[in-house]
Amino acid sequence: MHIVAVGGSDAGISAALRARELDPSAEVTVVVADAYPNFSICGIPYYISGEVGHWSNLAHRTHADLEDTGMRLRLDTLATGIDVDGRRLALRSSDGAETTLDYDELVIGTGALPIRPPIAGLDGLGAADGVHVLHSMGDTFALERSLERLQPSTALIVGAGYVGLEMAEGLSARGIAVTQVEMLPEVLPTVDPSLGALVHAELDRHGVTVHTGSTVTRVGRGAAGLQVDGTGPDGEPLAWDVDLVLVVVGVRPDTDLLVAAGARTGPRGAVVVDETMATGLPHVWAAGDCVVTHHRQLGVTYLPLGTTAHKQGRVAGENALGGRTRFTGSLGTQVVKVFDLVAARTGLREHEAVAAGFAPVSSTATPDDHKAYYPGAQPITIRITGDRDTGVLLGAQLVGPRGTETAKRVDTYATALFHGMTVDGFSELDLSYTPPLGSPWDATQMATQAWVREHLLPAQVLSPR
């Protein structure tokens, strides 16, 4: 049995590791387009900030670690075509040489590509000009070279999603004055604007100049650096002279290889797979940011996340060996640290719940992370969304200072969502307590109890269960 995985990031490596774990006799080859297999792309902002001392520390596993599992790595090798009937993969190495590789089962984990928005002048500029995207180790090294060469004092970031916010912090840590431009009404648009506003205030507090409801319309080279033009919320013209521009407005699935082989696409152009990660092409599986996401509440959607890619890759690797496991679905659980604040979410927001056929209502509470009489207690803002008719928990959003365990508290909600709990039933969870770390009712439970008080009548609470 020869399993070939294409892609050296989360999905491809997870598939290869699972296959080797279950069947050490299986031959497993991983085809990697660059020289950096199993690197943490999520850790790039912390390398740029200087918190991660050397780029090699971003490797989940070293080259040697991976080969010690028995897998073979084909680095700096691009997969250019799939002969589905012949079970053969066409390859091109970095020197241009073209070869083929036979397989019994194929797992595709080509991931996603950064979106380049329609900004005038953007396509004619690149790293040599101080204009960057940030998605790969190659992008990281290019940005690092610009930082060393230009010694920038100012930078403009297009986009205020997860990576944009992390990079605002990372560049600020290097003493660079950061301007951030977001086209939507508030930063971190994956949470409700009222919670995004808390993140916005944190950016303000750390000297980041934020323009929301604004767009960048043109980027060009000037005598002293880069000239950036934009439009404000009311259409007023905006202009900035900066040394560096970073464009991080999201990703799109990298599907060319699979589509050329005949795979179908779905939401956002991602390749359609079932819960076993089968593509519908014989002996071809796919996982990660190039494929659709099976969401436990929304059904089939597209939600590229590293955690999801790891799970999907594991499923694909097992099933390529003949297993029968299934990806049980995502809840979109996410978290980001922005300076000294942590924002997290899981499940659905109201507009998403409405689209999924629920009758959502929400409430917001600000319980302390631990007992107020113990020094250092800090409030966490928690927004709970539940179904008005059934009382089922639909989603949670949290923003709290670093140190309030906001990231782990969102995981408690994610666990409850996974098992279909009601908002009221959340109070029955037996959660830990000691005054320096929590309260007899955890902050998560205080927030769900606030939802119950606001949205459930006493008769509904007291009705037989």
Q: Structural class of the secondary elements?
A: alpha/beta
Which percent range describes the beta-strand content? 25-35%
Distance between the termini: 53 Å
Overall shape: it is globular
Q: Structurally, how many domains make up the residues?
A: 3
Strand arrangement in the largest pleated sheet: 3-2-1-7-18
> Which CATH C-level class of the largest domain is it?
Alpha Beta
Q: Please name the CATH topology of the largest domain.
A: FAD/NAD(P)-binding domain
Protein name: CoA-disulfide reductase
Domain Pyridine nucleotide-disulphide oxidoreductase dimerisation: 335-438
Cofactor: FAD
Keywords: FAD, Flavoprotein, Oxidoreductase, Redox-active center
Structural description of this entry:
With 465 residues, this protein is of the alpha/beta class. It is built from 12 helices and 25 strands. The protein has helices spanning 10-22, 44-48, 63-68, 137-150, 162-173, 193-205, 256-260, 306-320, 350-355, 406-418, 443-455, 458-462; strands spanning 2-6, 27-31, 72-74, 77-83, 88-93, 98-102, 105-108, 112-114, 131-133, 154-158, 177-182, 209-212, 215-222, 225-231, 237-242, 244-247, 251-253, 284-286, 293-295, 299-301, 334-338, 341-347, 360-365, 381-387, 393-401. The strands form 7 sheets. It has a 5-stranded parallel beta sheet. It has a 5-stranded parallel beta sheet with strand order 9-16-10-11-12, covered by helices on one side. Helix 1 packs parallel to helix 8. The radius of gyration is 24 Å and the shape is globular. The termini are far apart. InterPro entries: FAD-bd_OxRdtase, FAD/NAD-bd_sf, FAD/NAD-binding_dom, FAD/NAD-linked_Rdtase_dimer_sf, Pyr_nucl-diS_OxRdtase_dimer. Residues 2-313 form the FAD/NAD(P)-binding domain.
